[in-house]
Model the fold of this input.
Amino acid sequence: MPQTLNIKGETFYLLDADEYRRLSGGELPALPVADDAGNVRALEYARASLVRKIAAGMEAKGWSQAELARQAGLPKETINRLMTGKNTPNRATLAKIDKALAARPRSR
Done:
């Protein structure tokens, strides 16, 4: 059982780094490997590149996937599916994410 901390009435769980990475989706997706002619699959490359850019924006703000979802007004599951490469966002979703990452954080 993980250790807990209570701060200002909220409970926080302490996890070791490996468990945190496992639960948070782990490392960034690898960019696809080029074939012998130097070509990569465009959709796979675009997805991985997009996730890497979003992850960099989240890291710069110190946000988790849950915080990005809250700031963008999107379900947490939507962000998780995007960050794990299960889905590609539509224009409206991407616009909300971009706006959230570009804006100052909303207060809780």
